[in-house]
User: Which sequence fits this backbone?
């Protein structure tokens, strides 16, 4: 059957309507699934109690295959990368980071119930915070704090420069001065930096003594020892040391330079941090740990 070409003026709204219908279809399914499984929780980011949307499809089969994940691990990873709050959209990993921040920084000695409430306090307003790469949910909640410094990795941008109002920072070499921040936030970023050791040294450098790096990272339970999957050559090209993996698609997305294994906490301690693993240990059923790395005061 021959296709009848549609004029662009008709095609565009049709495609938009199709995509929107598709999105609403998924949303309806997510809602039904959340109701069926009784996932109804308090959100530590926005403070609302509501449905959390588990979406197994966020971890594609190609990523599972390339990374060698079992179905159990893939489901745990899908929980980490979804279970979005119906109200604010924060994923499980962002909500757990929020929980850790509430523990670390009480208001008048008391733990706030959620990050939104916390962000309205004087204590939060005084903290100097760097967010290296946007963390959905947390970014919007902390955005209006007086000393909140968000940045993103923007390819080909000038380090420390702005593109459409967004500052470009690269963990391979931050442009911030030494001892600049009380708190550095990253989420699922360290594995994409060509030199993990250098990235950790950079975070340590910009933290004040006693300051903390609070972050999530993809540590796999079946990887005993951390290893480089790729490295950058001097000319800027990438040398593959193991079959390449990209996030989130497997073949598509951001290149993984380091596969993080079960020795990751040791690596963090060797990089000069007092390290705590929250929601640990890493297991086949829970991959959503939050790491707290404190720069020693001594
Ligand atoms: Zn929420």
Assistant:
């Amino acid at each position: 059957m021959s296709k009848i070409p549609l004029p662009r003026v008709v095609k565009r709204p049709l495609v938009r309507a199709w995509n929107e219908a598709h999105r609403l279809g998924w949303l309806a399914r997510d809602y039904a699934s959340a109701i069926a499984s009784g996932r109804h929780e308090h959100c530590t980011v926005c403070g609302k109690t509501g449905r959390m949307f588990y979406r197994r499809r966020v971890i594609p089969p190609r990523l599972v295959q390339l990374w060698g994940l079992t179905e159990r691990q893939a489901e745990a990873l899908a929980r980490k990368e979804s279970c979005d709050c119906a109200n604010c959209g924060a994923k499980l990993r962002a909500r757990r980071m929020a929980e850790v921040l509430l523990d670390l920084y009480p208001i008048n000695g008391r733990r706030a119930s959620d990050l939104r409430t916390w962000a309205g306090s004087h204590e939060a307003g005084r903290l100097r915070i760097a967010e290296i790469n946007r963390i959905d949910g947390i970014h919007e909640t902390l955005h209006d704090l007086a000393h909140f410094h968000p940045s993103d990795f923007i390819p080909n941008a000038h380090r420390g420069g702005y593109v459409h109002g967004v500052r470009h920072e690269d963990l391979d070499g931050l442009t911030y001065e030494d001892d600049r921040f009380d708190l550095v936030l990253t989420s699922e970023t360290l594995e994409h930096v060509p030199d993990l050791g250098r990235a950790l040294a950079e975070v340590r450098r910009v933290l004040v003594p006693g300051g903390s790096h609070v972050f999530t990272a993809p540590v796999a339970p079946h990887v005993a020892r951390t290893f480089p999957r790729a490295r950058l050559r001097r000319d800027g090209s990438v040398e593959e040391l193991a079959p390449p993996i990209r996030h989130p698609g497997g073949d598509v997305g951001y290149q993984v330079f380091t596969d993080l294994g079960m020795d990751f906490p040791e690596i963090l301690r060797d990089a000069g941090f007092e390290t705590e693993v929250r929601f640990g240990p890493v297991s086949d059923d829970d991959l959503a740990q939050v790491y707290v790395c404190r720069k020693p005061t001594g």
Q: What stands out?
A: The chain has a mean pLDDT of 92. The CA atoms of residues 163 and 229 lie 30 Å apart. Residues 43, 45-46, 48, 85, 87-88, 90 surround zinc ion (CB under 6 Å).
